[in-house]
């Protein structure tokens, strides 16, 4: 197959599928509704590290968890979730919440939508142990 | 016969891949079952697929040069009959089984293969979430015996392309189970869903490409369990959709582990070749450790599929 046709097919194919999934409503991010949602998402990643407390943000796009190993973060990855411990995390307040930079090439940073009160609370909770 | 050529079937299949993805997407949307799609996940998978084709074009000459060298070395030539092509396809599938098994059991090879497992979804775009770094695993050496016993390099690569195309359609939740005879011999959506599972039961099994018989022969077959839904993705899921990070994260992980101070040269070697999850201080879990911890909590699962 000529390279020009292959490239055209690939570019149009990717763009078309992206537009179609967006149009069909398949790009809504996961929202954590309850503490149980958060604990379940945490347990998927850290089954040996129980959660003692959950701080769920109003936007539902992430939650702070307290564990014996320190604070951890659960956040939405598209329609799914992932989680990391927050040791060595760097925090930066943004206009809409908090940016958390992690020393992890596979999860370099997380941007969370938080209220001003949540931003202060989360900064204190994470900053106290980071 | 040195100028033997076959079509690049993977490139020719690109329009079929796109059409099949569209069909699956519309099926899921209209039927409200049979899988999930998410925009960024799907786009990442498709970009990984495009990058795989690009890396093949850019780096394919390395494997081809190696195979040509072997072909000039060997005194054997099995010819190009249909029977020889069929035999080549079957033996190349056996080759695929072992490369794939190494891909899960040797971290150096896992660093290339991991991105294929990095989606938390399981749909036809996941099939295209392919490696960009296969050349650097040196797994082309596993094909050497095929060429040395007389299969032409072009035929071997042609069969490898057909193998990859076969595996495309099994990346779906839209198909439940195939007829029993088919499930017994062939790799199917059901068998391959299990392979993509991160459940302790489903780790490190069903490495087959086309014929599931290899897993049954070598003791790595685990059937999909009605009572245990497959949870897709990695043991530690990624926190990024950036294709560069998806492609290279495990290589970066190896580099960080190998270059840390205070460990022995044996430890550095093991960080490259031991199974994923190995660590010099035991602070991480291999799949064996994950299964053992699961059994400690759920002893009733002992001896059942995936825990025997």
Topology summary:
The complex is a heterodimer of chains A (about 130) and B (about 300).
Chain A (H helix, E strand, L loop, with lengths): L2 H21 L11 H11 L5 E6 L5 E6 L2 E8 L2 E6 L4 E5 L2 E5 L7 E5 L2 H12 L3
Chain B lengths: L8 H4 L1 H18 L7 H35 L8 H24 L1 H7 L10 H4 L16 H5 L4 H16 L11 H6 L3 H7 L17 H6 L24 H16 L6 H9 L13 H11 L11
Structural description of this entry:
The complex is a heterodimer of chains A (130) and B (308). Chain A has 2 domains: 1-28; 35-127, no CATH class. Helix content of chain A is 34%, strand content 32%. Chain A has 3 helices and 7 strands, in the order H-H-E-E-E-E-E-E-E-H. In chain A, the strands form 2 sheets. In chain A, strands 1-2-3-4 form a 4-stranded antiparallel beta sheet, with helices on both faces. Chain A has a 3-stranded antiparallel beta sheet with strand order 5-6-7, covered by helices on one side. In chain A, strand 3 and strand 4 (80-85) form a beta hairpin. Chain A is elongated, with a radius of gyration of 18 Å. By secondary structure, chain B is mainly α. Chain B contains 14 helices and no strands. Chain B has helices at 9-12, 14-31, 39-73, 82-105, 107-113, 124-127, 144-148, 153-168, 180-185, 189-195, 213-218, 243-258, 265-273, 287-297. The mean pLDDT of chain B is 97. Classes of the chains: A alpha+beta (130), B mainly alpha (308). Chains A and B meet through helix 1 and strand 4 of A and helix 2, helix 3 and helix 12 of B.
């Amino acid at each position: 197959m000529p390279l020009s046709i292959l490239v055209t097919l690939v570019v149009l194919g990717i763009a078309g599928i992206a537009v179609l999934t967006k149009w069909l409503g398949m790009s809504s991010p996961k929202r954590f509704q309850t503490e149980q949602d958060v604990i379940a998402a945490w347990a998927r990643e850290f089954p040996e590290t129980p959660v003692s407390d959950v701080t769920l943000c109003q936007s539902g796009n992430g939650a702070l968890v307290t564990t014996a190993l320190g604070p951890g973060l659960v956040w939405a990855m598209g329609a799914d979730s992932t989680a990391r411990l927050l040791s060595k995390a760097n925090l930066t307040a943004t206009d809409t919440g908090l940016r958390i930079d992690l020393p992890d090439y596979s999860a370099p940073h997380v941007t969370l939508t938080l209220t001003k009160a949540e931003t202060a609370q989360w900064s204190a909770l994470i900053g106290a142990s980071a | 016969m040195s100028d033997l050529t076959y079509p690049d079937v993977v490139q020719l299949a690109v329009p079929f891949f796109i059409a099949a993805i569209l069909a699956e997407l519309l099926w899921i949307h209209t039927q409200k079952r049979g899988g999930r799609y998410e925009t960024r996940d799907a786009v990442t998978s498709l970009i990984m697929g495009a990058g795989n084709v690009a890396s093949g074009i850019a780096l394919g000459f390395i494997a081809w040069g190696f195979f040509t060298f072997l072909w000039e070395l060997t005194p054997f030539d099995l010819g190009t009959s249909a029977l020889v092509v069929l035999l080549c396809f079957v033996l190349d599938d056996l080759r695929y089984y072992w490369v794939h098994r190494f891909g899960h059991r040797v971290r150096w090879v896992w660093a290339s293969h991991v991105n294929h497992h990095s989606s938390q979804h399981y749909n036809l775009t996941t099939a295209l979430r392919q490696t960009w770094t296969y050349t650097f695993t040196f797994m082309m050496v596993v094909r050497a015996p095929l060429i040395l016993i007389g299969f032409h390099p072009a035929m071997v690569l042609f069969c490898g392309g057909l193998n990859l195309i076969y595996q495309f359609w099994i990346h779906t939740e839209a198909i439940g189970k195939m007829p029993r005879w088919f499930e017994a011999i062939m790799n199917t959506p059901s068998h391959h869903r299990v392979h993509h599972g991160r459940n302790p039961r489903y780790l490190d099994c069903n490495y087959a490409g086309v014929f599931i018989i290899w897993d049954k022969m070598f003791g790595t077959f685990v059937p999909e369990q009605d009572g245990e839904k497959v949870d897709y993705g990695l043991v530690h899921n990624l926190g990024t959709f950036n294709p560069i990070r998806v492609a290279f994260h495990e290589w970066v992980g190896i580099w960080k582990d190998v270059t840390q101070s205070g460990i022995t040269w044996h430890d550095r070697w093991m960080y490259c070749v031991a199974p994923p999850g190995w660590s010099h201080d035991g602070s991480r879990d291999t799949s064996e450790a994950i299964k053992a911890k699961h059994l400690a909590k759920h002893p009733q699962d002992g001896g059942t599929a995936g825990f025997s």
